[in-house]
Amino acid sequence: MLPEDIYLIKRNLTFGSQYRCLPLKWDSKQEQLVVHGTNSQKLAISSLFVNLFVLLGRLFSVAKSSSIVAQSEAAIVAGIYLTGFILRFDHPVDHVAIQLVNFLVDPDIDKFDRTRTPKLQLGIRFFYWAAEVTCFFISAILGILSFLSPCQPILLSSLLCSKSNMGQGHKHVLQLVFGTIEVISFKQLAVGGIYYLLTVLLHGISFLWLSCQSLVKGYKSSFSIAETINKYKELKVYEKVLNSCTKSRIFLTTALLVPAMQILICFASIQLFRSEQVSNVLASVFQWIYFVILLFTILMFSAAAQINNLSTNWIAECRRRCGNKLERRTHKSLMSLRLEFGNNFVEALTPLVVQEFCARQTVSFLLLCR
């Protein structure tokens, strides 16, 4: 991994230690990730319960909202908190994921022959900075709205709103409490999401993709068939480790909930632009979030599909160079690299299927609300 990427990982883990939302930290002496002490882990679990409380409040606000626009806004925020809660539910701590990241940040591991930084790496860096900037602005907006307009459907304080007014006796105290919860909980959500989605998932996929490309180039140039098959088996081991870390929680949650969030945010942003009761600023915020999520889903599924496609094509091409009986038998045992989520895996057409589904469902929602 390049120093620029390691810097972003360290930066994210520093924020995680500040907001007590991750059960791990960066050890400057060992130059790797380590698990927090018992007291810090208890604080991380406490922040997870706060996230659960906020999530339940968001779900209740969806049912309480009257208009379709208000319900869609509340549903989007509830979906974001649901995704963050599942991603951060890492208890007991998955030590395999920590070892995976330590493997990726080891400077001796990254020996790829790069003439320039791959587009996938540039995309991951963009998501780090985009997530940080978006987190800062959205948490600031939520905190300000808690004072200026506490009855917005995207706020927890809307639960205490009535047709007359928000609690009379201790109004400003309640606004301060809810504003603080909004800011801190959203920052904890964003920092935790950055670690699990970008550091573990996307960087894990990126390493496997670069390794596949390096294998194909070496196979075409100088590697013998036996040496190439041995290198491919090493990639299969790495694939098994990556799948064990991501397929049951991180990748499964991302593959199911993030496209659903993409549909809801696209629908809500269009409805907000068409509504005369909502300012274009809020609609622009939703549109920016939709743009980031759209790029994320395309990049994640496309990279995973490319890995499967590269390995499938390499296995088919490798068959022609198998000379003796042992090499042919070894070749028959090879399976393509598959990034799994639940009981499914990403193949060549998965990115197109996901985006087609998102587009169709968005259009269906818009037609139903005409």
UniProtKB/TrEMBL annotation:
Record keyword Transmembrane present: yes
UniProt organism field: Folsomia candida (Springtail)
Keyword annotations of the record: Membrane, Transmembrane, Transmembrane helix
TM segment ranges: 43-61, 126-148, 193-212, 250-273, 285-305
Record's protein name: Gustatory receptor
